[in-house]
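Here is one record:
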Amino acid sequence: MGRRRILAACATALAVTGGALSMVPAHAAPSSGSAAARAGDLDGDGFGDLAVGSPSGTIAGHAKAGYVSVMYGTAQGVRTTRKKGITQQTAGIPGTPEASDRFGSAVAVGDVDGDGYADLVIGAGGEAIGTVKGAGSVTVVFGAKGGLGNKAIAFNAPTPTARQGFGDRITVGDFDHDGRDDIAVVAGTKVQVVKGAAKLRDTAKPAMKAYTPPGGGVATGQIAAADVNGDGYTDLATVASFDDPADEGTLGVLAGSATGLTTKTLGRTGLPFEGYSIVAGDVTGDGKDDIVIDTSFEDGPDDYLLRLYPGTTAGLGAGVAYGGTARPGSVTGLADFDGDGHADLVTSDTGAPDPDGFNNAGAVTVVKGTGSGLDAAHQQTITLDTPGVAGASEGNDLFGRAVAAGDYDADGKADLTVGVPGKYLGTGAVSVLPGSPTGPTGTNSILVNPEYLDHPTLKAGFGSALGAATRP
C-alpha cells in the first residue's frame, strides 16, 4: 500500500480512561462508590499506585514469561520502598511461567468487585491455552488493605485462538454504573466484556459477552473507556474495520446503560485507516469525555494529524483538527496534570533521536487542555535530557512506549509516568514526573529500573506496559 507506520500503537499500555481528577484525600478509608479505587489505590491508603509490565522478563529460566511490578504511592509520590512483584509463580496467581507467555503485556487498574480497593488487571497476550499457542489470558489480582492480596482469578477467550493475543488490549470501566468496574478485552474481531461482581474473586470462569465494534467485522484495534455523553454510564470507544484494515476504519462508541454495555451507538465516523491510537478524557471540563485520535501514518497531507471528537449529550461530536504543528507520534494519554479541571493530552514519539543523533531515544509532548479544546500554544516536549528530569537520553531507549497517569501523592494533580523499555540494553525503566500547576515537571522526578525493586533485569522490557488510574 506504500504506507508506513512510524510507531507501534501504545494504547494497549494505557490505563488512563478518564478526565478531570477526583481523588480521595490522603489516608482516607475506602468507601461506598469506590473513590479510592477510582484513584488507582490498590491498598486503600488514599494514594494512587503504579503497576509496571515487563512482558519480556525471564522467570524461572523461561524467556519472555513476564512479570508485573507494583510501586505504591506515598505523600512523596511513588517510591521503591513499598513494592510487590507478581509472576505466575507468585502464591495465589493462577498458571505457571512459560516461555513467551508475556505476562504483563498490558495492565489496567479498576475496582471490579466494588469493595473500595482497586484491583489489578494483567494481560498475558502470549499465554498458551491448552495446545493453542499465543491465545492469551487475563489475570485479576484483587486489592486489599495493606496492598494486593493473594487472591486472583484468570480467564481466557471463550474460544481460544492461536496467536490472538487475548489480553494485549484491555480497558476497564463501569458500563452499568453499579459501582463495580467491568473489564473489556479485544478478542480478534470482537470485544469481550466481563461484568464486575461482588463475588468475582470466587468465580473460576467468569461469564463474557461479545460485542462487535461499530464498523467492525474484520479487525478490532484500540479501545478506550469513556463517558462520552455524561450520563454516568461508562461507554466504550473503539477503532475497527470491516474491510482490509490498511484501507479504512471506523471510530465508534458503544453506549453504557443500567444493564451494561449495549449495541447502541453513540456516534461513529469513518477513518482513512484502521491503525489509529485513541485516548479518552474530559479535555473541555464539561463532564463529558472527549476522544482524541492520531493519524500515526506518514502518507499525504494528513501526516501525523490529531483530531479531537468532543463528547456531547447526544454522543460523539464532529472531529476538530488540531491546530498545532504536525509531528510524528501516537496519542498515549489524557489526564489533568496541572489540576485545572481539564485533561491534557500526551503524545509519544519513540523514534525521536537523542542529542547525538541516535534514533529511537524517544520524547513525549504534553498539550494543555482548555474549555475550548487543546491549546496548541501551550505544549511542552519532555525527554530524559529535559532540564531537571532524572536520567539521560540515549538511542534505543524508546522513551514514551507506554504512558500512564496517577495521583501518587494525592495532591489533586495527575503525575505522568513514561515507560522506557529499551533503557539499559533492554532492561527498561520508568520515568515518573510529578504534576504541578504548570504541568508535568522534572522537579523531584525519578527514573526507576527493576534492579531497584530486586526484580529480573536482563532484557526485561520493564516499562513496556503501565497501569494507573485518574478517573473521576
